[in-house]
Amino acid sequence: MSDQHVSDRHTIHVGGEWRAAADGATREILDPVDATVLAVVAEGGAEDTDAAIAAARAAFDQGPWPATPVAERAALLRRVADLLQRDREELGLLESRDAGKTVEEGRVDVDCVTDAFRYFADLVAGESGGRVVDAGTPEVHSTVVHEPVGVCALITPWNYPLLQASWKIAPALAAGNTFVLKPSEITPLTTVALIRLLAEAGLPDGVANLVTGAGDPVGARMSEHPDVDLVSFTGGLVSGTKVMRAAADTVKKVALELGGKNPNVVFADACATDEGFDTAVDQALNAAFIHSGQVCSAGSRLIVEESVRERFVAELARRAEKIRLGRGTADGVECGPLVSDRQLARTEEYVASALAEGAVLRAGGQRPADLEPALKAGYFYRPTVLDRCHREMRVVREEVFGPVLTVETFRTEDEAVALANDTEYGLAGGVWTADPGRARRVAGRLRHGTVWINDFHPYLPQAEWGGFGKSGIGRELGPAGLAEYRESKHVYQNLAPRPVRWFKG
């Protein structure tokens, strides 16, 4: 990436050109580990957004990319994947520093991004020229073909900036669209790097455009702009509803992934052996505390059978207290900080409200006291286990997006399912049981877009990702993820036209 270096303040990409904000505004990007300045980027506004949309519109209406054969589009996506692996260490480190995660998590993210580009390359490369529809007569040739939507506005969150960008960019490009991308203003650095890699791979100017800046005005303008044909947004529920309202006047396509309040249901039979117990506890920790709980699919609601609750929660709390916090690049560190002071304050407020409502603190519940002096200003919070929780608590109902795990209990299978489904969200959930029949029954009854059985968190680029209820609309990944960026067109050809004589004349 070094030969593609662009000045920090030139992070807006329009029509193939890197530029500063039109009004010269900038934003400091802070390192969440110690609150020092990590970078300075352009703070784009409405003028920059309009310019980026105009470039994407021109590239779609007049440029070569929409008509580029799918084999050539696929080849470009594969070149991007190769460049990602070439720069894996540098990108992984940058993601670690910008988002606060461990460097190993950053490397895994780069690998997952690579997989997404390769998956969508393979998906479109293997397609035929459309679906033939039997019209019931040899005199008609009828096909359904898929065309790109047009100009796509892509808005990504701060927790997985590189990964979430790839889930939108790869299918958008595979389908032949152009786009304008707005990363989170908190964590834009790896997105800037990814746009550079697209240019290096040979993507025509104007196809990929980037505006670094705040949701208002940049994201708001993208959502309402009449020259945008689709908005794909990943983020919080409040912002997602604003995007939907802004897009309504122009009746553009909208895809939303708005997080979740995800149950992790543990039946007693999953803990009947020492190995089963150890695995279920270990996975409950992973479900809740990976990336400090800043994961849309985090298993933040532990729903455990009453007969094993005390043993399970005691061991979970013991292990949670031993999780090692620190700078993500340091040896032995297992968990980094929250992404910002705002997110830290939000987490503290949720824990305080839970305790006031009767929750029992079993682990964490405070900022760490044993950090080295250089990290005291960072946004660290101990992994927290709150026992004796119930559905009326805010911490159980609302998405915290921090290292906070709540514990609820059940006695019967029906009660477990009712608790797991008692949420406005429906993104993901887990079921732990040694009974295959129960596993299938419970998975079938859960109203969540992804259900893991005896596992938590893995996803596959070839399998759709998205949720029920207020977790959003539409899907990413899989064939449906590609379909979001396409319009279907029915082409009906009469091979033997003749007068209809409906009107006798």
Automatic annotation (TrEMBL):
The keyword Oxidoreductase applies. It comes from the Bacteria. Residues 18-491 form the Aldehyde dehydrogenase domain. PROSITE patterns: ALDEHYDE_DEHYDR_CYS (PS00070), ALDEHYDE_DEHYDR_GLU (PS00687). Pathway: Amine and polyamine biosynthesis; betaine biosynthesis via choline pathway; betaine from betaine aldehyde: step 1/1. The active site is at E257. The keyword NAD applies. Keywords: NAD, Oxidoreductase. This is Aldehyde dehydrogenase family protein. It comes from Streptomyces lichenis.
